[in-house]
Amino acid sequence: MDRSRFPPGKAGHASRQRGIRGLVATLLLLLAGCGEGDSEALLRDYQQRLAETLGVEAPERASPDNIGAFPEQDERLFEIAETREGMLDVYALRECHIANLVAGRNNQLGKVAAPSQRWLYELELWRRLSGCWNGDVPDTLSEDSRERLARLTATKTDQLPRVSWNALFASEEWIKNFSRASSPLSPEALGEVESRSAALRYLREATLHQFDRNWLADSATLEGHLKTLQERPLSAELLRALLLAEQRLAESSTLIEDTLGELDGASCRGAVDDLADSPEAARLAAWVNDLDRAARHWLGAIDALLEVHVAAPPAVADYRRQWLSLSEPEAPLPAFTAARERHAALRNRLARHCR
User: Does residue 225 sit in helix, strand or coil?
Assistant: First the structure.
């Protein structure tokens, strides 16, 4: 090239521009490559390989539905009446050692405490009242104070399961775990499910043992497990992965159904064998197995946690049935299982047709 035809400086400028464009193109390719390991890319690659096997165009991919909105606060929490006692009345129960506890709850920090801390307060208050009522203290009290102790103990015993529920369903950590502003869980993150489910097991244990005065409720442990839930919206990510898988498997199944009657059984055997042995099919099978195992583990842990709580308010019961159920046909996990089984059956039918 005759560089003299460019005005002074233009050749260098053009070269730099080409270099910049090349760098940008390279970065875009790298960024695109970063997403190649995600669930959508894995499913897309499988659909493309299936379409090539069948000699048709890949299906048009529809966007799967998002998960439903978590119930609003007034729909998911129980209304619990405030317990009000005069300080002199509380002082009369000084042998129960609740005065400092009540004072701490009523100060400025106590009024803005996190839901988990409010539950710990109510738990400790119930334990002190219950221990006091079941000890020798009632015999030393006046009739009025003894009746007050009996009433307070009964009230707190009745309220504690609903306080426990509210502590979970009012917590930011729990609510954000079901955030609709999430993406399907990536294949490489499926391995986090089992370790993170320790948080759900602890919350279940805490609920089961809240009436056991010998069980120690540790604030640091509780907050640590809640922090685990806050670190990523794992419930939402798993549900969205199930919805995505169901959608793509259904599209792939429809592709087989629509094409099967037109295939020449004598000539498609090799292509179908190649599909069965393809890396795309192998990656899909491994991911589907891992997703199924992870979803059953996590949703099973949520189910076990909710089972030890009081009966849910109607809005939460509806959400649980629609999105978290292990058995309702329309819920994400059973619907994914059905789509998976349907696709496996069609793949077997395709293999038999092309023998």
Answer: helix
d(CA 232, CA 236): 9
Beta carbons of 323 and 68 less than 8 angstroms apart = yes
The overall longest dimension of the chain from CA atoms, in Å, is 111
Tell me the two tokens of residue 195: 């370790």
Burial of 132 (C-beta count, 10 Å sphere; 0-12/13-18/19+) = buried
Half-sphere exposure of 295 (CA within 13 A, CB side): 31
In this prediction, residue 107 carries a pLDDT of 63
- Report, as an integer, the average pLDDT of 283-296: 97
Nearest to 243 by CA among 84, 40, 102: 40
Enclosing H/E stretch for 84: none
Residue owning tokens 């995600």: 38
Tokens of 133: 């009522």
Angle, CA 316 vertex, CA 314 and CA 322 arms, to 5°? 100
Q: What is the pLDDT of residues 95-145, one digit of tens each?
A: 999 888 888 777 656 667 899 999 999 999 999 999 999 999 999 999 999
The percentage of residues in the chain with a pLDDT greater than 70, rounded to a whole number, is 88
* C-alpha dist (Å) from residue 208 to 145, 155, 233, 319: 31, 19, 25, 23
pLDDT in tens, 207-265: 999 999 889 888 999 999 999 999 999 999 999 999 999 999 999 999 999 999 888 87
From CA 315, how far away is CA 173, in angstroms rounded?
A: 19
